[in-house]
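Supplementary Note 3. Input sequence used for the single-chain structure prediction.
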Amino acid sequence: MTQLDAPPKLGRKRDLTRDPEILDAALEVLSEVGYEGMTIDMVATRAKAGKATVYRRWDSKAELVIDAVACMKQADLEPDKLPDTGTLRGDLLAMIKPRTIDESERKLRVMAGLMSLIASSPELAETAHAAIVEPRLAVNRLFLQRAIDRGEISADVDVELIASISQSMVSYRVLMLRKAMKPEYMRSVIDNIVLPAVGLGR
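The predicted structure, written as discrete structure tokens, is reproduced below.
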């Protein structure tokens, strides 16, 4: 078994401030070429670091990828930075901004690049889900719960199901249809699918 093929070590204490350039470079390469096509050389070149520098910190490509995914930035999705417009539609539309769209699309491509690694190490699916999928689902749940609390929508709404609608449709568009996430598409999903699903008109 080669060093690159060694099984990833799980449960290591992660330093979220360590070597951000290398971790970010790993995500960029992963999103572009996938896990199988990714090499430590490619990451080192992108990060402008020596290959030995990378190997001193991570024993394998798998470990580097795990740390990179676990350290993905979630700054825009922190509760104190989320919009509170007073309506569900307003909150959802306020999340449609270039930086958020670009970051969401990047994360989806990272997830696609991880598929082969997850297939060989299913336990890594939890790490990927926590870093890529769950943060946006949590935002949608928060917006829906706010709408319930203020009486805008019924308390009988299936929050978990509705929260996943836009995420699922965006994933299909980006990963299967290979189309970009566009603001007008996001608005259409909100107005024509999400709002009617919770009993609100366009």
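The chain has two domains: 18-71, 73-202. The domain at 73-202 is CATH 1.10.357.10 (Tetracycline Repressor; domain 2).
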